[in-house]
Design goal:
74% helix, 323 residues, 11 helices, MetI-like fold
Length: 323
């Protein structure tokens, strides 16, 4: 009798733990499925709402640079997203190229070089950049940055003009793709820095001590032990920052002049991004025009999804290689 009672008492907590594990597992599974359902719902909404404009479009939607979806009855409806997609990807790439090396340097300084108090303060300041509204970045870029960069742009055009990217003439307003890319770089800097800092701090101490014990300097230890270990995290942070740059709206809309051209020249006015174009055109759009903007949003959704899938693939391959 005593043995039976004691066994039942011992089994009760196990039953409760099993029930808790079951509830937690189902809740986690439901949360994961909910994310997939939301993503699928957004995709279906974009496809359904853009069908009317895609069927009425008489130009090549992916290559045309014209945008006139609200023509008069009987007129040819022509619009495309080639120039907008080009500008979107170009601005994000500029931001990524500028922000990633700086973010890695800041993360390494915070984790391995800065004194503890300075590291905490600097980490707080970098994280605070993410809390600044995008419209503030847009005002800073439009009023201050575009004017202050004019001498630098003229220098690039004069001495590096033989490179097509920096060929003149330089825009007199400074509202160029390079200016937009610099503002986006500042905006995504805290994202890449935060993820790089976390992954650098998780490098096993045994790896670092082994490199130092073999006579490596601090930089050599970072190069052979820290950077290889943290590369997947850095790539993931960079792609996450690029996703933010691809979808940024207000800052880019305030800096770039509205235009529909495909221009590889970074110092000239031209190009526009999908998100900025939607924000500028939507208040006055009606009918087919709204559907056309939603179709452009569908293209942006596909670009962002492709970038994130590529990032996951690269990170998983690097993890397998490391293991």
């Amino acid at each position: 009798m005593t043995t039976t009672d004691s066994s039942q008492t011992a089994d009760a907590p196990r039953g409760k733990r099993r029930l808790g594990d079951l509830v937690f597992a189902n809740s986690a599974r439901g949360a994961g499925l909910l994310i997939l359902a939301i993503l699928a719902g957004v995709a279906v909404f974009l496809i359904v709402q853009s069908l009317s404009s895609l069927t009425a479009n008489e130009a090549n939607f992916f290559t045309s640079t014209e945008w006139s979806p609200e023509s008069a009855p009987g007129d040819t409806v022509r619009f495309g997203v080639a120039s907008l997609a080009f500008g979107t990807v170009l601005a994000a790439l500029i931001a990524l190229v500028l922000a990633t090396p700086i973010a890695i340097g800041i993360a390494l300084f915070i984790v391995y070089y800065a004194p503890r108090r300075l590291a905490a303060l600097l980490g707080y300041v970098v994280d605070l950049l993410a809390a600044i509204p995008s419209v503030v970045y847009g005002l800073w870029g439009l009023i201050y940055l575009t004017q202050e960069l004019q001498p630098f742009y003229r220098f690039l055009a004069e001495y590096l003009g033989w490179i097509p990217l920096f060929a003149g003439p330089v825009s007199s307003t400074g509202r160029t793709m390079l200016s937009a890319g610099m503002v986006l770089a500042v905006m995504i800097l805290p994202i890449i820095t935060a993820m790089s800092r976390d992954v650098f701090a998780q490098v096993p101490q045994a790896h670092r001590e082994a490199a130092l014990a073999l006579g490596a300097t601090r930089w050599e230890m970072i190069r052979v032990a820290v950077l290889p270990f943290g590369r997947p995290g850095v790539i993931g942070g960079a792609m996450l920052g690029m996703g933010r740059a691809l979808g940024e709206t207000m800052a880019v809309a305030m800096i770039l002049s509205p235009s529909l051209v495909i221009s590889p020249y970074l110092l000239r006015s031209g190009n526009q991004t999908i998100a900025a174009h939607i924000a500028l055109q939507y208040p006055e759009a009606t009918g087919t025009g709204v559907s056309a903007l939603i179709a452009a949003g569908l293209v942006l959704f596909a670009i962002t999804l492709a970038v994130n899938m590529a990032a996951r693939f690269v990170v998983s391959r690097r993890k397998e290689f490391t293991e």
